[in-house]
Amino acid sequence: MSQGTPAIPTAPAVKPPFTWESAVAKVRMAEDAWNTRDPQRVSLAYTEDSVWRNRAEFLHGRAEVQAFLRRKWSRELDYRLIKEIWAFGENRIAVRFAYEWHDDSGHWFRSYGNENWEFDERGLMRRRIASINDLPILETERKYRWSAPGPRPNAASGVASSTTGSSRRSGPSARIGSRCASPTSGTTIRVTGSAPTATRTGSSTSAV
After folding, report:
1. Secondary structure of the chain in the HEC alphabet?
2. Residue 56: is its pLDDT beyond 80?
């Protein structure tokens, strides 16, 4: 491995049951991993028999996940992603996200989505359900311009700021709701404004 190349994670550092702080950290670790655009690194955060629904595509196991990610990043060029926590339970996390990319013809898009994650006792994700919509944008409307592939700077804006300002979008800007119910424990989590994101203080030991 060349000097300066991040080590591929071998074990998750964040496991259920989640707290607010550990769930936020888990989301940021996933964001950082996906922003590497490295299918192998990303796939190691999922169980060997993980089950996905991504848009209308259904996947089972790491091999299919890796193949899917290779196809994805060969089509979605200059990909940059932001994820934010929406709610969490004992072993589940709900996330909203947005990412920008362009196709091989130079047409730009901002894709908005929501994910439901379920983890095993080791902190590996065993189920991922993602629903995504693509919004065509102009190159001048891009909001995610950090050096990539690589992690989003802590000072960069979050998902909420990317839901406003497009000439192709009407209606009020999306905001995180004021109260979210836990999917497993029934507890209520208070979330106000834009969801906080974890501050990166060093190299992550896990992809998710």
Report:
1. CCCCCCCCCCCCCCCCCCCHHHHHHHHHHHHHHHCCCCHHHHHCCEEEEEEEEECCEEEECHHHHHHHHHHHHHHCEEEEEEEEEEEECCCEEEEEEEEEEECCCCCEEEEEEEEEEEECCCCCEEEEEEEEEEEEECHHHCCCCCCCCCCCCCCCCCCHHHHCCCCCCCCCCCCCCCEEECCCCCCEEECCCCCCCCCCCCCCCCCC
2. yes
Q: What is the pLDDT of residues 93-118, one digit of tens each?
A: 999 999 999 999 999 999 999 999 99
End-to-end CA distance of the chain: 22
The residue behind tokens 């190299």 is 203
Q: What is the pLDDT of residues 66-75, one digit of tens each?
A: 999 999 999 9
Mean pLDDT, to the nearest integer, of 7-28? 81
Residue pLDDT, tens place only, 149-183:
999 998 666 666 665 544 444 333 333 333 344 44
CATH hierarchy code of domain 20-190: 3.10.450.50
